[in-house]
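Q: How would the structure tokens look for this protein?
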Amino acid sequence: MRRINPRIKASFLPAILILLSGCLNPFAPALGDPAESLWTDQQTVGDLLANFRNAYNLQDSLRYSNCLADNFVFFYYDVENSHEDQWGRDTDLKATGGLFRNFDDVALVWYAIPPAISESSTADSSLEFDVSFSLSLYGGGLSTYDIYGFARFTVLKESGDQFRIISWKDNTVF
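A: Here is the predicted structure in token form.
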């Protein structure tokens, strides 16, 4: 039987220690507290708006869809045809998904949400309010856009459920 040179054995020691340490990756970032989530349970209007903002900023169409009621309607002014128009939830999800795919970075910021609106948690009663925003769209082979405007939301939290947006009227300033 042939003996292994002690110098060769010593060179395997670091590899053996790494294997014995399990799946520890010293270069992996520390995991945050799993109890702290970026996403809320949408039990207040502020929670709903936070999820909406996060869905836009992270370009997460699945989370965005959870903010919209099944009967959601988006109202806007069609500049080309000079009239008010609207579309439903399915069209809105396709349009928003396209926006997320076509820009490298999306940044939505809400401004001046009154605490009485943000903290509202009343079930089975719709609530209508205006909120100002800025939306910045960067890259993706397209120009960069900075959009400022007001959104008029109607939201509802049915008993035992979470807040969802029933309608959104876009009052964007161009």
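The chain has a mean pLDDT of 85.

Helices lie at 6-20, 45-57, 61-66, 89-102, 115-118.

Upvote if useful.
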